[in-house]
């Protein structure tokens, strides 16, 4: 099946590259088919001869069948196809040999007879087949036969055919290679001696003859002085030398296997490389030449696994222990890789070594591996090799934790290796170097995450590599982003990341848009992991790293960006920043404040577009801190009161001169820049600040904030609707403030009232005034005991400063406090000014009455009525029953004035409002507690009129 | 076993004795395989001649019967020139009438330095021949052929062969064979070393070429025969490579090298290397090699 699958693939490839694809493909298929047919025919005769047990006939037929493999016209893939077919058929021949050899000991005859074949390709295939059978039959001959086969295979320097021939050699001998097993280890010396004897016993053997000859030849070779051949001769000498040495040292059987496999690998590699350098026919055009070269390269790559089988074989040998690998295998392989000088072979073999041998071996041979990398062909993709190695090691380390002893040594080797590569390989693309450094960083994180200094060192290497003035490509940028993300994703802790001194330097090399991406990722990481950064130093580093988000620059995205995506990105960034700053805080108040100041400094250079978004959260952060300080101060006071002893924390606060006041000053400062930019928001913030400072009982500060708020209202708000909303905010805020001296409070109330009355739109005016009316009867909406406590506290604090003045206030407040509501629930009245309250209500009624729109009039009237009922129910005396009655009369009067279109005027919600209000009054009249208060209210008539 | 030849007058049978255990060589004579006993020089050639007259009623006169042992160099290049290499004659009978008779004969330790040889145009044959001489009619003859093979005692001194093939700046190859002298079942071992090969070689083969050189009275004839070709390399080598050659002579039916037999006949062998490039252009180099006989197999194929 697999064979059939391969053919179409090749057809496709050909079609792409050839001018006349159909004929080419056709020719190839035709040729393959005819060769296969011929082989099948000979195979048939071969089988018959085999069945008849005729050895010499079989040799002839097998040789005949193998002739197809002499073809030069097949593409490597088709050749492979034929090779598979033929080598499959050759099994019959092997069977016959095996049978014959069992009957009589004719091994050497068989081995000789196949060599009568005059064609070299069939001859060598047969020789290998016979050799395998001989070894199988008499393992003592292994060494002799293997060496002979290796030698004879040199007769086929044709790249493709030689490669397949040697692959066949490798295939046929794979199960025959002597290996070491646990049980054998003890007796290996004994075996070896036997083999030596065996060799000595057959001095007349052709093989030893040949060895003699070889020696002679070698000597002659040495005499031939050809400089360029030095390396080759050297190689031969080595081979010879090794052999001699082997004999002297009683070479172990398993060494034969290793040497054999390595030798075959080296030869196959040479052949494989040579495919690339085959001379092309001279009569083709330049274009064809180029495409032929490309095709050759492609075809060559397809054949790599043939070479690789030898490496696999080596790795499967138990005898290749770490020691053997290090001493005997790897050095030879590396030397070969280095010497061959071919880029494809170098990258394939290096990667194959990394993949095929156990990771443990690599750990112990890293310096050796690295020693050749700088010397590889300039076009070899060193990056892929190193990354592969790194990935393997990471994988290994993850699967076998604690199995690596000296982890730092490993990364040191990598680091040194890489720096020597960058020194020697000037053509190493920057992107590759970056990828390598990224990989190394990952390895380092995996092996020794605690070595932040090393990560930092890597980052510095990245920065250095970028220092060359050349614009970063898109890929390089992505790689840098990946480098930056690596420690981020690994540690998931900004506190560790800010220790990386070179991080911000590397970020700075990026274009702004990419810096923004990584900075944002940075912040999001902090938010996702909820990492609190509590040291001011770290905070400033963090802000330095991510500064692109805070600083205003030419190419930064604008709020008014046309592009919706960019615009939304800008907001996403800034809102992330807003969320993020809440992570920057410390248990230590002083540090927190310092952090806030750092943030504020950074934000201040962010330009108006950023400030608009970023200042508010900073303000809230500061307010929170202020609250914290307030709590501390409270505790301090408690301790002072109880023990009269001093507490260290509070000392600290005082030592650094930090108080809530200072925070409010800080807030005030950062707010000033905001008022013009963002009046509405700053107004609201001022109100917030006022609330917070009021809580801290800082009357002057709270007053200042309120004044600021009102100032903003006055100076910047022009839109009537906004004005109406904001005045409502202001008066509602004011109503909850509690730290004020009544004089100051009433001053602010006046201003509120004044602005409410100035509203342009009448209904707004009415409603704002009604809201203002609440200011003049301000109650503390808390259970009495808590409210008492709070007030008392305030009084006491103020007592310390100016006793006389405050007593007055205490008196005033106290007098009003004792009011009881009908519900028997006493409330604390904070402030009351009946005259102005009534003034407000009356003004509201008056303005409402002048309205031209009756429907609106009824709406406003019922609202006013409700407000009045609220005051009435408080039983504060500000609003009495007759006032309510007058109001009810007014409503009735207005109703009768609009009797004609009454139904249209009174919409369902308004009607319900009236209905419920009246029902409430009715209920209160019945209620035991409120009966007395509500008795004077005359509701009957209006009820009859409204609810009929 | 004896062969009788009949000329209508009588049958002459010649039988060799002293053949027990002798190797046999198969040759083709008149398109038929004949088994010849193999003798060596200094062997005693002995046998029995038996004449039976077929027409007993009629008396056949002869002027004498001779037995001749001879080794002859025959060539079809110049007809009629057959050179006796060795010969010895025994008179079996003087003139008289032919009658049934038997003779024992023996040529003790006969000297036959030249081996039997079957070439294309030239051959060396050994036989025992009985001739009944007649005055008035054609002589009656009968031959019994046998084969001579000699083990070489004085083996020529072997020198290493080194051949270089070179085209300046294009090709530089040498072939080295440690021996120039081989016995007939020997293996030729050697190496081919490449120093420079800019020519795109396709393959290489070696061939053993036999030359029969016959010096006639007027001119010298040389006959070339390629005994075998043997591919030793497939593809183009790169510089510095060294290709092994291992070539078994055993199956090739070679003869030893002969030099100037009877001053007019030689058989020489040459080891020739062919390099064939992708345009089928051939480069070759040859060197004489000398074969000698080291052993005689039980049955020598034709």
TrEMBL record, chain A:
Region of interest: Disordered: 1-28, 179-246
What's the protein name? Vacuolar protein sorting-associated protein 35
Q: Which Gene3D superfamilies match?
A: Vacuolar protein sorting-associated protein 35, helical subcomplex Vps35-C
Instruction: List, as start-end ranges, the regions of compositional bias called Polar residues.
Output: 9-28
* Domain of life, per lineage: Eukaryota
Pfam families (alphabetical): Vps35
Q: Where is the composition biased (Basic and acidic residues)?
A: 182-235
Instruction: Supply the PANTHER family for this chain.
Output: VACUOLAR PROTEIN SORTING-ASSOCIATED PROTEIN 35 (PTHR11099:SF0), VACUOLAR SORTING PROTEIN 35 (PTHR11099)
UniProt keyword Membrane present: yes
Report the protein's function: Plays a role in vesicular protein sorting.
For this UniProt record, give its keywords in alphabetical order, as a comma-separated list. Coiled coil, Membrane, Protein transport, Transport
Q: Which residues form a coiled coil?
A: 622-656
Q: Which family does it belong to?
A: Belongs to the VPS35 family.
- Membrane topology annotation: Peripheral membrane protein
- Compartments (UniProt record): Membrane
From TrEMBL, chain B:
GO biological process per UniProt: intracellular protein transport
Q: Which family does it belong to?
A: Belongs to the VPS26 family.
Recorded protein name is: Vacuolar protein sorting-associated protein
What's the source species for this entry? Answer: Anaeramoeba flamelloides
């Amino acid at each position: 099946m697999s064979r059939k699958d391969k053919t179409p693939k090749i057809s496709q490839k050909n079609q792409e590259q050839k001018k006349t694809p159909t004929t080419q493909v056709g020719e190839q298929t035709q040729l393959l088919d005819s060769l296969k047919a011929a082989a099948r025919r000979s195979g048939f005769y071969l089988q018959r001869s085999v069945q008849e047990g005729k050895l010499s006939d079989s040799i002839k037929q097998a040789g005949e069948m193998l002739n197809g493999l002499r073809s030069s016209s097949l593409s490597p893939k088709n050749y492979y196809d034929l090779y598979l077919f033929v080598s499959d058929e050759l099994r019959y021949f092997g069977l016959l040999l095996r049978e014959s050899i069992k009957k009589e000991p004719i091994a050497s005859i068989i081995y000789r007879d196949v060599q009568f074949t005059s064609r070299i390709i069939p001859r060598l295939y047969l020789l290998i087949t016979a050799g395998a059978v001989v070894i199988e039959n008499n393992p003592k001959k292994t060494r002799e036969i293997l060496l002979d086969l290796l030698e004879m295979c040199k007769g086929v320097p044709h790249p493709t055919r030689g490669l397949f021939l040697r692959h066949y050699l490798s295939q046929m001998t794979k199960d025959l290679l002597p290996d070491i097993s646990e049980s054998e280890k003890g007796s290996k010396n004994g075996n070896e001696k036997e083999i030596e004897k065996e060799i000595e016993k057959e001095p007349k053997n052709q093989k030893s003859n040949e060895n003699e000859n070889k020696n002679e030849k070698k000597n002659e070779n040495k005499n031939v002085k050809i400089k360029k051949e030095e390396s080759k001769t050297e190689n031969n000498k080595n081979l010879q030398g090794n052999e001699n040495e082997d004999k002297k040292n009683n070479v172990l059987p398993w060494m034969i296997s290793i040497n054999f496999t390595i030798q075959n690998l080296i030869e196959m590699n040479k052949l494989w490389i040579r495919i690339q350098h085959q001379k092309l026919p001279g009569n083709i055009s330049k274009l064809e030449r180029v495409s032929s070269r490309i095709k050759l390269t492609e075809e060559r790559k397809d054949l790599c696994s043939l070479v690789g089988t030898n490496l696999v074989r080596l790795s499967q040998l138990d005898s290749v222990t770490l020691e053997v690998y290090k001493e005997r295998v790897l050095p030879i392989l590396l030397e070969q890789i280095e010497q061959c000088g071919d880029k494809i072979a170098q990258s394939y073999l290096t990667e194959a070594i990394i993949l095929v041998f156990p990771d443990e071996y690599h750990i112990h041979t890293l310096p050796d591996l690295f020693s050749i990398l700088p010397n590889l062909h300039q076009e070899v993709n060193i990056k892929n090799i190193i990354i592969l190695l790194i990935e393997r090691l990471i994988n290994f380390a993850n699967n076998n934790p604690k199995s690596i002893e000296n982890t730092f040594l490993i990364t040191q080797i990598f680091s040194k290796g890489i720096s020597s590569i960058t020194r020697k390989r000037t053509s190493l693309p920057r992107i590759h170097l970056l990828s390598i450094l990224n990989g190394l960083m990952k390895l380092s994180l995996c092996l020794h995450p605690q070595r932040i200094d090393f990560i930092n060192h890597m980052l510095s290497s990245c920065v250095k590599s970028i220092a060359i003035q050349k614009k970063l490509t898109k890929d390089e940028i992505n790689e840098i982003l990946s480098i930056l993300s690596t420690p981020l994703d690994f540690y998931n802790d900004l506190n560790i990341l800010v220790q990386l001194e070179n991080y911000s330097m590397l970020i700075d090399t990026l274009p702004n848009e990419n810096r923004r991406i990584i900075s944002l990722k940075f912040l999001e990481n902090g938010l996702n992991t909820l990492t609190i950064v509590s040291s001011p130093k770290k905070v400033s580093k963090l802000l330095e790293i991510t500064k692109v988000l805070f600083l205003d620059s030419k190419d930064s995205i604008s709020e008014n960006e046309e592009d919706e995506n960019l615009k939304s990105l800008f907001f996403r960034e800034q809102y992330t920043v807003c969320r993020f700053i809440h992570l920057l805080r410390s248990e230590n108040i002083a540090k927190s404040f310092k952090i806030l100041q750092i943030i504020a400094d950074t934000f201040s250079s962010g330009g108006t577009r950023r400030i608009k978004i970023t200042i508010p959260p900073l303000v809230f952060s500061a307010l929170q801190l202020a609250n914290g300080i307030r709590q501390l101060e409270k505790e301090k006071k408690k301790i002072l009161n109880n023990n009269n002893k001093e507490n260290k924390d509070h000392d600290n606060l005082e030592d650094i001169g930090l108080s809530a006041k200072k925070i409010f000053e800080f807030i005030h400062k950062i707010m000033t820049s905001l008022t013009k930019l963002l009046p509405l928001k700053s107004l609201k913030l001022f109100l917030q600040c006022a609330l917070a400072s009021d809580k801290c009982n800082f009357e002057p500060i709270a007053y200042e904030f309120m004044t600021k708020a009102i100032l903003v209202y006055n100076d910047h708000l022009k839109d009537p609707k906004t004005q109406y909303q904001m005045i409502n905010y202001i008066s509602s805020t004011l109503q909850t403030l509690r730290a004020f001296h009544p004089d100051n409070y009433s001053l602010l109330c006046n201003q509120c009232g004044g602005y409410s009355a100035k509203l342009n739109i009448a209904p707004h005016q009415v409603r704002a005034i009604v809201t203002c009316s609440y200011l003049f009867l301000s109650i503390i909406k808390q259970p009495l005991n808590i409210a008492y406590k709070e007030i008392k506290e305030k009084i006491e604090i103020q007592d310390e400063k100016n006793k006389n003045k405050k007593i007055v206030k205490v008196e005033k407040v106290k007098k009003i406090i004792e009011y009881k509501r009908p519900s028997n629930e006493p409330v604390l009245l904070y402030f009351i000014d009946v005259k102005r309250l009534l003034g407000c209500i009356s003004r509201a009624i008056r303005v409402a009455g002048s309205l031209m729109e009756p429907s609106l009039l009824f709406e406003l009237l019922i609202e006013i009525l409700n407000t009045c009922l609220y005051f009435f129910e408080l039983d504060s005396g500000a609003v009495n029953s007759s006032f309510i009655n007058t109001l009810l009369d007014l409503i009735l009067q207005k109703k009768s004035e609009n009797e004609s279109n009454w139904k249209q005027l009174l919409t369902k919600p308004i009607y319900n409002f009236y209905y419920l209000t009246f029902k409430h009054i009715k209920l209160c009249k019945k209620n035991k507690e409120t009966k007395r208060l509500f008795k004077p209210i005359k509701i009957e008539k209006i009820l009859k009129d409204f609810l009929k | 076993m004896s062969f009788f030849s009949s000329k209508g007058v009588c049958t002459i049978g010649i039988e060799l004795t002293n053949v027990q255990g002798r190797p046999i060589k198969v040759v083709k004579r008149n398109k038929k395989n004949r088994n010849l006993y193999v003798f060596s020089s200094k062997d005693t050639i002995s046998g029995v001649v038996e004449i039976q007259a077929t027409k007993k009623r009629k008396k056949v006169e002869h002027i004498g019967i001779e037995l001749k042992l001879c080794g002859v160099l025959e060539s079809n290049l110049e007809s009629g020139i057959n050179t006796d290499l060795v010969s010895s004659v025994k008179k079996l009978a003087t003139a008289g009438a032919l009658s049934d008779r038997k003779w024992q004969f023996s040529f003790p330790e006969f000297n036959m330095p030249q081996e039997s040889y079957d070439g294309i145009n030239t051959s060396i044959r050994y036989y025992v021949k009985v001739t009944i001489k007649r005055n008035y009619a054609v002589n009656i003859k009968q031959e019994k052929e046998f084969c001579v093979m000699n083990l070489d005692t004085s083996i020529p001194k072997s020198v290493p062969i080194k051949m270089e093939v070179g085209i300046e700046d294009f090709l530089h190859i040498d072939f080295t064979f440690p021996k120039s002298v081989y016995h007939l079942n020997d293996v030729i071992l050697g190496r081919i070393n490449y120093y420079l090969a800019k020519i795109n070689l396709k393959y290489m083969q070696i061939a053993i070429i036999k030359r029969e050189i016959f010096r006639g009275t007027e001119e010298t004839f040389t006959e070339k025969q390629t005994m075998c070709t043997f591919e030793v390399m497939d593809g183009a080598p790169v510089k510095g490579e060294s290709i092994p050659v291992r070539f078994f002579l055993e199956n090739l039916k070679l003869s030893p090298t002969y030099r100037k037999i009877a001053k007019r006949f030689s058989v020489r062998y040459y080891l020739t290397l062919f390099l064939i490039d992708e345009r089928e252009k051939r480069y070759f180099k040859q060197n004489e090699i000398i074969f000698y006989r080291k052993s005689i197999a039980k049955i020598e194929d034709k």
